[in-house]
Design goal:
Order of helices and strands: EHHEHHHEEHHHEHHEEEEEHEEEEEEEH
Distance between the termini: 19 Å
Organism: uncultured bacterium contig00046
GO molecular function, one term: phosphodiesterase I activity
Strand content: 15-25%
Shape: globular
EC number: 3.1.4.1, 3.6.1.9
CATH architecture of the largest domain: 3-Layer(aba) Sandwich
InterPro entries: Alkaline_phosphatase_core_sf, Phosphodiest/P_Trfase
Radius of gyration: 20 Å
Largest sheet: 9 strands, mixed
Enzyme class: hydrolase
């Protein structure tokens, strides 16, 4: 993937991740004024491959490292904890990423970074950090979990100004809160890099379906938020801005609970795929069982067992109208990328991968990965 850079200088960068944004959303997005204006001078790709499994946390780690999950270590959203299968810990903290990140490079260069619900940034060096974390212990709550893992004084400042917007962690209020936090931080802290994660669309697609009216309304809300953020910047010199997705979704027609079928293995669902944890003596038996399941497309050997891939329209989760986690080469399953700014030339990119994004950001911002 090549994106032409017109000239090199240290540029500010805003990275907006719209969770579950599909490449197929581009035609609809072009009908919305704020997006249409942005796309006029953008480098655009509607054929972006996610990573495998195509989950939010592995994908976002790949976006900031330029590496695949097996390299950076975020192989799932949640840890494998057999005794906490109903409420496992997630890969919330920066310590889990076994690679350099683009925001660490920025901080090393003396830049300020703001992050808003960006996965796997808990307890990182980000100066203005509202991490994505959840309280999954009976003695914990959302405020304390967030304060422990992020920038406490900064978060209290944001809650004082915008806490009234929140309705717990429900959408669309949560993305509205993030929008106001981004605007406030740009105005008052002037960071060189912003990383913001919006999950309104992901929630709508899981609940109502990929091309549901509710999903389109979520895209309309994203456009209004984008317009509000960019509108605030128009009075100044615009930074480089990236809009991207982490994965698409596929409508669900059938659900399979692998743990009700496998006799001597544990399946950990990734939605359209699943990790199969099994002892060596039961591998042959488990492989045979998996191959007999109507809805398992293929299996891959892994150091700890297998990776099972669902056929299109099948999920290993439950109670969802649409899901993700599938292999990125599934039909109509590409995500999206668009970038515009002083150093970025307008063009159409035929194809790219999430792992191409971090090197691009580094080039625009004058940063360099050590390895």
């Amino acid at each position: 993937m090549i994106i032409y850079i017109l000239f090199m200088k240290k540029s500010k960068m805003i990275i907006l991740s719209f969770d579950s944004l599909s490449g197929e959303d581009f035609e609809f997005m072009k009908t919305l004024p704020a997006f249409a204006e942005f796309f006029e001078n953008a480098a655009i790709c509607t054929n972006v491959s996610s990573v495998y499994p195509s989950l939010t946390y592995p994908a976002h780690a790949s976006i900031v490292t330029g590496k695949h999950p097996e390299e950076h270590g975020i192989i799932d959203n949640t840890l494998f904890q057999p005794n906490r299968m109903e409420s496992p810990d997630w890969f919330w903290q920066r310590k889990f990423i076994k690679a350099e990140t683009i925001y660490d490079l920025a901080i090393e260069k003396g830049m300020k970074v703001g992050a808003f619900l960006w996965p796997t940034t808990g307890k990182s060096k980000i100066q203005y950090n509202v991490p994505e974390v959840l309280p999954n212990r009976f003695w914990d709550n959302q405020i304390f979990a967030s304060l422990r893992n992020g920038s406490p004084l900064f978060q209290l400042e944001l809650l004082r100004h915008f806490g009234h917007i929140l309705d717990g962690i429900k959408q669309p209020a949560l993305d509205d809160f993030v929008t106001e936090c981004v605007i406030h931080t740009i105005k008052t802290k002037a960071p060189e890099m912003i990383l913001a994660h919006f999950t309104d669309l992901d929630t709508a697609r899981h609940k109502f379906g990929v091309f549901s009216e509710e999903a389109y309304e979520a895209i309309r809300r994203l456009e209004r938020r984008f317009d509000k953020m960019v509108g605030m910047l128009r009075a100044t010199s615009l930074p480089s801005i990236i809009i991207l997705g982490d994965h698409a979704q596929i409508d669900v027609k059938k659900e399979i609970d692998l743990n009700k079928i496998l006799t001597n293995a544990v399946a950990k669902s990734c939605g359209g795929s699943a990790y199969i944890y099994v002892k060596p003596e039961f591998e042959a038996e488990t492989e045979k069982q998996l191959k007999q399941i109507d809805g398992v497309e293929w299996i891959l050997p892994k150091p700890f067992g297998f990776m099972a891939e669902a056929v299109e329209g099948v999920t290993f989760n439950h109670s969802l109208k649409a899901d993700h986690g599938y292999h990125p080469d599934k039909p109509r399953y590409k995500t999206f990328f668009a970038a515009a700014g002083p150093e970025i030339k307008k063009r159409t990119i035929e194809q790219m991968s999430l792992v191409d994004i971090a090197p691009f950001i580094a080039e625009v911002m004058g940063l360099k990965f050590h390895v």
